[in-house]
Protein 1
Amino acid sequence: MTTTTAAAPATTVGAPLLDVRGVTMRFGGLTAVNDVSLTVNQGEIVGLIGPNGAGKTTFFNCLTGLYVPTEGTVSYQGKVLPPKPHLVTQAGVARTFQNIRLFGNMTVLENVLVGRHTRTKEGLFSAILRGPGFHRAEAASRQRALELLEFTGLAAKAEHLARNLPYGEQRKLEIARALASDPGLLLLDEPTAGMNPQETNAAEQLVFAIRDLGIAILVIEHDMKFIFNLCDRTAVLVQGQKIVEGDKETVQNDERVITAYLGAPLETATSTDEQAEDAT
Amino acid sequence: MSTETTPVIPLPLGAARAVTAVGALATTASAFLAWTWTADFPGDLTVTGYPGGLQWLTLTAGLLTLVLALASYGVPGLRWTSPSGSDNGLLYAAFGGAAVTWFTIIAIAIDLNGLANLEPGGWIAGVASLVALVGALGLPVDRHPKGTSWGLRLAKTDQPLPTARQLPSTVEVLLIVVAFAIGLFAITFGIDTEYGELFTGYLILAGFVIAALSKSGLLPRLRALTIKHRPIATGAAFAAAAGFPFTQTSDQYTSVAANILIFATVALGLNIVVGLAGLLDLGYVAFLGVGAYAAALVSGSPASPIHVQFPFWAAMLTGAAASMVFGVLIGAPTLRLRGDYLAIVTLGFGEIFRITMNNLNGTTGPKITNGANGIPRIPDLEILGFNLGQKHLIAGVELGRFSNYYLLMLVVTAFVVLVFARVGNSRIGRAWVAIREDETAAEAMGINGFRLKLLAFALGACLAGLAGTVQAHVSYTVTPDQYTFAEALPPNSAFLLAAVILGGMGTISGPLVGATLLFLVPKKLEFLSNYQLLAFGITLIILMRVRPEGMIANRRAKLEFHEADIPAQASPPSESALTKTGA
């Protein structure tokens, strides 16, 4: 699991991997995601930012089959993804969760082994009969899981309970678990939420290392520095709509983005209002 | 979780040890005295020079306290009994001695109307056991610091044991065999208790002895040995269980034991559904019923409308398959529900099964099950010309009908244990636990939640059906009323669930122990008559208060237990998360 050898092909951006066309998600009268299109190419890191409540996580859930989009299609490697989470994972799209959702009462190693589920086939009878095939598959899964723990720096804690890990390591474990399904595309939902600068830095290195393995990444984040350090392209979602997409400069200088985040034209208005209230 | 090692009653160490040892010796000796003047109290405690009934329990507790007290002195040759080097075990043993002795004294006073019925021997025993307890309370024990909780509360965190002396592996194997032989003796004693007082005393003593042995470090040592020699330990456990009928002179208690095994096997099947996959099933006893009815219908009983008699293996397969089909039929529509909703629906299905069996009586429905009369006169099984209904002479011991069924059931139980162990520790088992922990995350990891839950349901049903086929033959008759949600006697859905939760979810030995207790307690406490369920409920509350993880915690729970020693670092950084998200 060296990252340097795979680095060369990773820098070249390949064919489209994930193709999202006009996804709309309505909950009754509320349109959480409105006609969003997005592509992620092979070997790319794409960022998705937006203020709180912009619909980023809802958009993620539409991609991973947790929600069935009201309109639009999501295709991966040219095939439309079925709206079932386990089939999406099987197709090669893995994800992490904004609020960590580990299997708390399982060990770290077992968590990663669960991630291997779609890539192994041993069923009930194989488990009862325990033929040589079963032992081979278990050993292979274990081997791969330990590799991934080594990769994310959790190997020393393989036998700990997941819920007893420190926060930063729980985030790492979620990533290791997602990687265990051998994905072509990894969706990260706020991977650095609640981390200190050092941990954020380490997370950045980890994301680069994953990209160097040839896995494309779509990441939601609030930390601008993190996003602009990391991403080849960034899309901005505001009130369910994608307002701009492009590289660092395009996004940073876009007026609508500044408006959405800082509320520039409104700022004077509110301050005058406050002054007016103070005066009365 | 800081602990301190201080005595509860401040006494000089030397005096405390001496008092404990003398008290224990006196308790042991007092078991040989006459405690009451009349043989009216069961067990005949009137004989001087020979212990009887409850006195045996006091004797056991006294001897254990004495041995542990001598080990506390560091007497060479006895130090192995307390590998942890802590006096907590001794304190528990002394507590057990006092509890069982005073229980006996109170039982005598109540049964015979008044303390006047006690002979001096009884008073000596009571005082001696208290002396031992006071001495033990003066010993330095690991406990929570004063003021944080009530003064007596002993520390839960165990220090890691010092490494064991390396023994030749033959000696280790021998130790395992001896331990299981003692276990067989203890369980046989419990099943064979003839009156409620003795059984209650037995339960009290068993609780304290187990606590004492685990605090002294003997049980953890034994556990380490059984893990090291797992195949031998499994074999020894099986042999000990198979040895039970050979210790019995009549069929009275083997029938109890056979029914315990049936109950325990079904509880183990339920543990797949509840303990591994986390699906709360309140109608599980219906699957036992389906298996039993299927077996009864093809048993060749004259009351069965199908006049066929399947051979034993075919009947078993029929029962298991019928149960599995029923499980899939119930599971397919209901497993889309989660949590409480699933519990309610399964509760309903359990009742639907019973009512349907009642109605298939020829008047309110097709005549299949004879309604409330059930299917009686189910003939005994015959396996390879070996009729299980007749007495057979094996190894010089005459085995009756129930002994035969007990041994057959033991094979079924062993099979279910095997299935549980192997499936639980595999890709499928991990997926079940993942679903139990967080279904959404499990699906995001590529697990087909519905399919795996259905698989858990079907496998659990199939194993219960297997036990049902034997049950039909053991009890001669199947009636709908055997398969209710709750009543005073097991097996029923409520007791099955209690056995799993009480014993320890997700473990193998947990439901076996839980089921044994839940079967024996109502059976032996019949003297409480109307208060039986009340007493039972109080017992459950106490057990859940003392050990919420169940009597036998599973590997994961143990790990959590163990890691409590390490200072917790995993505090959710909610504050920093809040400040960060604004960035």
Protein 2
Amino acid sequence: MAKAFKYGIKGITGYLEPAERELLRSLFDDVVSMLEPEERANQDPLAALVGLDAEAREPSDRALRRLLPSVSKNDAAASLEFRRYTERSLRESKIGALKAASLGLDKDDLVLTPDDARHWSMALNDVRLVLAERLDIRDDEDAGHVHLMQDWSQAEDVESYLALVYNFTTWLQESLVQAMLASLETRG
Amino acid sequence: MTLSVALGPDTQESTQTGTATSTDVLSAPDIPWNLVIWNDPVNLMSYVSYVFRSYFGYSEAKANKLMLEVHKKGRSIVAHGSKEQVEQHAVAMHGYGLWATVEQATGGSGGGKGSGKGKGKRG
């Protein structure tokens, strides 16, 4: 069983079983592949280099739309323009955090620097956002319903399995954030 | 948002709404934009509060107050500034996975309804 993250002399530490690390690695990789921008034949390489994407559109996939939201609630044109200037680098920074967290999964014992911890918390959050869309969590009631699923022996279909995975990542992120908050207190 | 731990005693809900500023003259042209954070059932309350503290440098009390406002009212204005400033904050919030939008603080030209009341709070 994984141990909750905690903050101590060595910084933020945690422990994961090999199977749990394998699971997290595949979750991080899945979200990375969702976020990887598709390469287009006629793409301007210089524009790509500075983060511009003149072809960017609001994603049709709901989970991706939650990861890359529109910046204005009621001005679609402004949102689209903003997306063209910022979405590529947002995708890249999310991918960076997910890959950094994934790299840290090489050992059972996790010792996280403040930067590692930030990357981990972002990566776990993005994974949870995607799982929540797949589980159709729309409000607190749905979330409460999913939260009831805690027993791995009950995992009999894809949805119950996803719910268990969601609850595991929720628990892990909560323990990490508590450790990060504890480290904020200490650093003042 | 989702709650996993008991909150401290200093987190009672504020009854003021952040939008109620009765601006007589918002003369400075570089203040009229708000950064809005919207509630969702996934983000942990502790995480949202952590982001407010570490990114904006808000105190624990202020971060928790804003976080609870998001949770209970569906949205909260967590920062003001020029359009460029709040847009930069919005990208940073999206990086953290929070659902952030920008809006003009008072009704203005800009195409959309500036004060964009969070009507039709989607679930």
